[in-house]
Amino acid sequence: MSISYLFTSPRLGFRLWQESDLPQFAEMNADEETMRFFDKPLSQEESKAMMDRMNQTYADRGFCYFAVDLLETGEFIGMIGLGWKTFDADFTPCVDIGWRLDKRFWNRGYASEGAERCLEFGESIGVKTIYSLATASNLASIRVMQKIGLSYLKDFDLPDLVRSEELNPCALYYIKFA
């Protein structure tokens, strides 16, 4: 069976979520190291709900955090894409760009490559400004933001992380398209 991608980058294919992604996605989301900059690891049910939300976001808005495969092998490596943020802040509601990769695929340039391609995708569908946020101590994600051309805006406390003092503040980056 050949996979139909919504778009690709040189090494990555971007697609909607399928039921077959759940075992690997749930395993990734349950991993303490992968989830160390999030409120908590996710259960299989929470991972399934996230997949469903992403497909619904795509149906509603034309973008989501996409399931991402290596084109060479077809192997699922995680998610990269655009999200819709509505938490209470002076810059929301907004489109944000984010990524979460299985740790077996870290430090290979996939997050940067995929995020650059998702910025192009966002611009192509008419998004004017894209934000990105990460816990200020998440230096790997901040390096990706800088590498793909986002500019630092400010630090802020993410309301979703109020129970986790060590995760705030978050760094906020952005890019505007002409």
TrEMBL record:
MF GO annotations: acyltransferase activity
Q: Which residues form the N-acetyltransferase domain?
A: 12-178
Q: What is its EC number?
A: 2.3.-.-
Which keywords appear in this protein's UniProt record, sorted alphabetically?
Answer: Acyltransferase, Transferase
Q: In its keyword annotation, does this UniProt entry include Acyltransferase?
A: yes
Q: Which InterPro entries match?
A: Acyl_CoA_acyltransferase, GNAT_dom, N-acetyltransferase
Keyword Acyltransferase assigned to the entry: answer is yes
Gene3D superfamilies according to UniProt: 3.40.630.30
Protein name as annotated: GNAT family N-acetyltransferase
Q: Which organism is it from?
A: Algoriphagus namhaensis
